[in-house]
């Protein structure tokens, strides 16, 4: 296989030498002409969304003070034993169901032995040999939804996260923070069925949204909650995969794209020069946008896997096998299936086919974790304009999320309450700024947004006769103050400045109760009907 790849590279060597290819596109063109194609597989580590750790009762919280969330077990104090967190198992089952995996009704835990300072046990508890789920498939959209690709999922396993090593360059010391030690992880392993940056990034993005909708993982890559290990090799047509390189701990979609493009270019360049790609582990430098060698893997590392003696097999049940008359401290898969949250593919279909959104609009709501909330708001008030709700969420709610740091589910405002508020805005009882302010106040208030509107006496005037009366009074007042106010008025297209002055005075006279959207057309109508002088 290597001989054939070398022949391909030598055949195109003259092309590369003459053009001095440096960009990814040039190397990609060369690879295509040489019948070289990338094969990509991923190992994704998703930090489970749980208040407690995997095998201890310690709190799981991002950015807590150093070593403030460490139990005796987390620090590997002798005599302490692991106790499995049920919530972490439920998250694994939900994920396996969403990824169409075969659940192992009895899985086992293993010890993976290696020494590193942030792993005080000297091993990691994982599920290498008999994981909780295997053999799944996962579909995701490509090319703005025009295509769908499916990838094979090899397995999903539960395992512990490690602590963090904190390096101080000034003192040349390394410190250990065990807050993250023993936090629950889902390791999701794919087959090498991805072929480039586009489909790989699309897969990770869809998986991220799936885990978020399931509540299994918050998916904040910038906080290390979703980390990607990438395995990439170049292979000739109809040949087995070439030697792969692994790039660990990629923490962003844009970083993932850069890594793939750099590794394709690096490996193709090596082959073009007649060399061989080394099997090694590499790290990504996000500043220089390159990967650098960490350690080689010419010989498989012996982790000395052995059964975890302090944990029994993890047994799952269904309706038929579930124990009777117990404290229900077990996992019933059928029960979780009935509670299964909607996944992005199905939710995207509802947003586009039933609620009339375009693909990019649906993707925006999914990325911002607002899709389910948007759907529920429209289900609560079918007469609401989908465009009004979408624009309100896109402009106002996203801004509030950014400044306040909450998600829609954490806001405390229900879909029905927001539907009632936006119905008032649609019916011109309140304006846009009032609806935003009412929602924002409700975030820290026990009252609903509508109750806040009522308590502040914001409900506007919708009686058109009353509004017309205010308009007549405003025109009369402005004319008294300036007899030439309406001079040379063009009734066909009333001057914008004149309209704005009248509308502004109407709002003032009505103490804000008359809304601009209702007042403006009345003013224009009155001006058009005035006799020219």
From TrEMBL:
One of its GO terms (biological process) is glutaminyl-tRNAGln biosynthesis via transamidation. One of its GO terms (molecular function) is transferase activity. Residues 372-527 form the Asn/Gln amidotransferase domain. It is an enzyme of class 6 (ligase). Its EC number is 6.3.5.-. It is found in: Mitochondrion. Its main location: mitochondrion. GO terms for cellular component: glutamyl-tRNA(Gln) amidotransferase complex; mitochondrion. SMART domains: GatB_Yqey. It comes from the Eukaryota. InterPro entries: Asn/Gln-tRNA_amidoTrfase_suB/E, Asn/Gln-tRNA_Trfase_suB/E_cat, Asn/Gln_amidotransferase, Asn/Gln_tRNA_amidoTrase-B-like, GatB, Gln-tRNA_amidoTrfase_suB_CS, Gln_synth/guanido_kin_cat_dom. Belongs to the GatB/GatE family. GatB subfamily. Allows the formation of correctly charged Gln-tRNA(Gln) through the transamidation of misacylated Glu-tRNA(Gln) in the mitochondria. The reaction takes place in the presence of glutamine and ATP through an activated gamma-phospho-Glu-tRNA(Gln). This is Glutamyl-tRNA(Gln) amidotransferase subunit B, mitochondrial. It comes from Phallusia mammillata. The gene is Pet112l.
């Amino acid at each position: 296989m290597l001989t054939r790849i070398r022949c391909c590279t030598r055949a195109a060597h003259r092309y590369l030498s003459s053009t001095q290819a440096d960009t990814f596109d040039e190397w990609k063109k060369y690879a295509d002409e040489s019948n070289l194609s990338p094969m990509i597989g991923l190992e994704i580590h998703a930090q489970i969304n749980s208040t407690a750790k995997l095998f201890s009762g310690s709190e799981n919280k991002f950015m807590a003070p150093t070593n403030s969330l460490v139990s005796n077990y987390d620090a590997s104090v002798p005599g302490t034993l692991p106790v499995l967190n049920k919530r972490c198992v439920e998250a694994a089952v939900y994920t396996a169901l969403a990824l169409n995996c075969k659940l192992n009704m009895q899985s086992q835990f293993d010890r993976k032995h290696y020494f590193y300072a942030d792993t005080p046990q000297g091993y990691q508890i994982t599920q290498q040999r008999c994981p909780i789920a295997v053999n799944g498939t996962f579909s995701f959209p490509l090319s703005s939804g025009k295509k769908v690709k499916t990838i094979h999922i090899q397995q999903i396993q539960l395992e512990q996260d490690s602590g963090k090593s904190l390096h101080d360059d000034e003192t040349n010391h390394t410190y250990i923070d065990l807050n993250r030690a023993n936090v629950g992880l889902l390791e999701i392993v794919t087959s090498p069925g991805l072929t480039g940056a586009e489909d790989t990034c699309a897969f990770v993005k869809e998986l991220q949204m799936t885990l978020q909708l399931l509540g299994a993982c918050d998916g904040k890559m910038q906080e290390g909650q979703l980390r990607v290990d990438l395995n990439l090799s170049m292979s000739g047509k109809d040949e087995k995969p070439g030697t792969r390189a692994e790039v660990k701990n990629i923490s962003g979609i844009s970083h993932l794209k850069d890594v793939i493009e750099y590794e394709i270019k690096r490996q193709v360049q090596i082959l073009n020069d007649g060399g061989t790609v080394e099997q090694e582990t590499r790290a990504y430098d996000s500043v220089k946008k390159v990967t650098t060698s960490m350690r080689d893997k010419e010989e498989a590392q012996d982790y000395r896997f052995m059964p975890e003696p302090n944990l029994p097999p993890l047994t799952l049940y269904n309706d038929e096998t579930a124990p009777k008359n117990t404290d229900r401290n077990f996992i019933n898969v059928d029960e979780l299936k009935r509670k299964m949250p909607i996944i992005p593919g199905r939710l995207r279909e509802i947003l586009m086919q039933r609620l009339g959104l375009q693909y990019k609009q649906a993707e925006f709501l999914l990325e911002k974790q607002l899709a389910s909330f948007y759907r529920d708001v429209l289900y609560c008030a079918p007469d609401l304009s989908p465009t009004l709700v979408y624009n309100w969420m896109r402009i106002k709610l996203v801004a509030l999320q950014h400044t306040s740091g909450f998600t829609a589910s954490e806001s405390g405002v229900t879909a029905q309450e927001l539907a009632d508020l936006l119905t008032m805005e649609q019916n011109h009882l309140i304006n846009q700024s009032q609806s935003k302010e009412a929602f924002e106040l409700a975030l820290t208030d026990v009252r609903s947004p509508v109750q806040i509107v009522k308590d502040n006496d914001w409900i506007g005037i919708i009686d058109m006769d009353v509004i017309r009366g205010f308009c007549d009074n405003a025109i009369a007042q402005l004319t008294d103050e300036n007899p030439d106010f309406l001079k040379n008025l063009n009734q066909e297209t009333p001057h914008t400045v004149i309209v704005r002055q009248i509308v502004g005075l109407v709002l003032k006279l009505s103490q804000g109760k008359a809304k601009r959207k209702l007042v403006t057309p009345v003013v224009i109508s009155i001006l058009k009907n005035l006799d020219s002088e």
